[in-house]
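Marked as duplicate of an earlier ticket. Keeping the data here for the record.
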Amino acid sequence: MGKVDKADKAGAKAAKLDVPYETRVKHVAVIAKPLADEKLSKKVLKLSKRAAKRKQIKRGVKEVVKAIRKNTKGICVLAGDISPIDVITHIPIVCEDNKVPYIYVPSKEELGASGLSKRPTSCMLILPKPLKGGADDDEQKEFDEAYAENPAPRRRHVAAGAAAEPSSGGPSSSDGPAPWAAPGYLNAVVSRMPEAQQAAAFAAIAAAIAAGTVLNAAALGPAASSVLPGFLQVTRTSWFPLGPIFIAAGVAHFTEEQGFVNMYPHQGAWGIWRLPGSARFHVQWTGVAEIAGGLGLCLGALPLDAVPDWLSPASALGLFFLTIAVTPSNIYMYTHNAPGPLPAEVAPGALPWQGHAARGVMQMLLLSALWGIATAA
């Protein structure tokens, strides 16, 4: 019986692998781009099999991401039929940030088999050279030729220095808009609605933030300040901790620029977003403004006669309106599952609605604090 069971399992596995390309493509996620055609898919899988025999592969999400972040070069191959696709959607962004070409193939079973694994594989990094030990010169030359013939296309969602960004603004790639601009990306609820309903949802979220800010600034904030120690009272001429916070946030606009570009609303978002200038331009000028405003708050908190009395209120008022100006980007992260400046290990869409709600509450508190400083006697 044992032999019969093994034979049945082997037959079932062979049947899974013996599926036409056209059939496999039907099960591929819509965001699996670029997807290798039938001819290129065979070439990539053949190359990965040769690499596996030579121990020149990394497989699995954790191992692949770790290798790429350590500047290990290669060709990243992803399975387009992984479900849920969320588990690998962050890998293309990691690849682009590290200039590693990548491509999707339609089958996780075929990708696993090509890597000499008995199990399906979600992703694989094909290395140009063995990490340890050497190889026969002739064998290495033969592999190098095969490797050179398989340059996986690099779909640049928003990679720095890559495809030109349209002057009209919004993240894009050489192959079209960023994937989160598509309706319902990673099960986003709002972006799959008709545009009129999207606009209404955007207005409702913005109105909730505004109402919470007014309530907190007019009643809750002053009530809390009356019982808090002085260093926690934000409704004063200055509250020093806000200065370094805004300086750090402004610096992040440049050190983590790609993440902020990703969360900038694409042209036509919610059916209403039409703002001139590229996403990168808006990320950079708001970063400079946050640094300047943060420095103003820091200087205003110093007990020096040379510091004008108006510096803190003016800085706080400027940051208040700046925070309002960037609020659509924060809303966009929720409505479209845009990745934002999150760690590479965090997949887009992984932040639950409760996390977005918490970010909204924090924004209300921040706006209230700024307003308190700007209007303090």
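See parent ticket for discussion. The first helix runs from residue 2 to 17.
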